[in-house]
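COMPLEX REQUEST
Ligand: guanosine-5'-triphosphate
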Amino acid sequence: MTIMREEDLEIAIKVVIVGNGAVGKSSMIQRYCKGSFTKDYKKTIGVDFLERQIKVEEEEVRLMLWDTAGQEEFDAITKAYYRGAQACVLAFSTTDRDSFVAINKWKKKVEDECGSIPMVLVQNKIDLIDQATVKPDEVESLARELRVRLYRTSVKEDLNVDQVFNYLVDQYLAIINHSEDVYTTKNVGENIFGNPVKLNKGDTITLSGKKKTSKKQLIKSACKVI
Ligand SMILES: Nc1nc2c(ncn2[C@@H]2O[C@H](COP(=O)(O)OP(=O)(O)OP(=O)(O)O)[C@@H](O)[C@H]2O)c(=O)[nH]1
Ligand SMILES: [Mg+2]
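STATUS: Structure written out below.
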């Protein structure tokens, strides 16, 4: 028999970063995970993956960042990698109006696969504000319309990148902590898992505590996706 101790478990969050080509998705992940920035543009072919472990209120959280290709030629293959994502970054570039217009399409594409998950709108390359092709108020109204928080980042200058991921982690933890509350509530009622208010004999109750995954499970699930 294997005894699994609490310290063997960790919270793992799969985050997908989507948006048009060249908006800075790979650069953002590279900045966040490796602390570096490269000026040259090398488009992502298909999908890439990096991870970073952070500590949030004494909890180890492993962020698995899925970097998807923004170029249209890869549209068909990237979608499959969204599956199982628990959070999403919708990125566009300050200097590329098309990438701003495409945000709705990216959001829908992710929601088609993942349903409603924590998302954030990121206006990258804010260091190039003098070459902006989008007005601040139209960006703010898109964020309001989509009901997502807006962050203006410069991956180049390392501005606001950590904040984007911290926010998503907080959002995700709030959701799982809430599901724990529901789980421990005596009166299950109509909860976020869609269980009926009045339980009858034979009803199925969906139980879900804090989602912690063992390292082994993590590797297994990552392998499945690849
Ligand atoms: N000035 C400036 N340039 C940036 C910033 N972030 C990324 N870049 C540059 O923008 C270009 C594209 O960056 P990538 O990270 O490769 O873009 P991507 O979104 O991953 O592109 P695809 O992989 O094709 O989808 C690169 O030349 C980066 O150096 C930024 O904040 N400011
Ligand atoms: Mg890329």
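REMARKS: The chain is about 35% helix and 20% strand. Confidence is low (pLDDT under 50) at residues 183-198, 204-211, 214-226.
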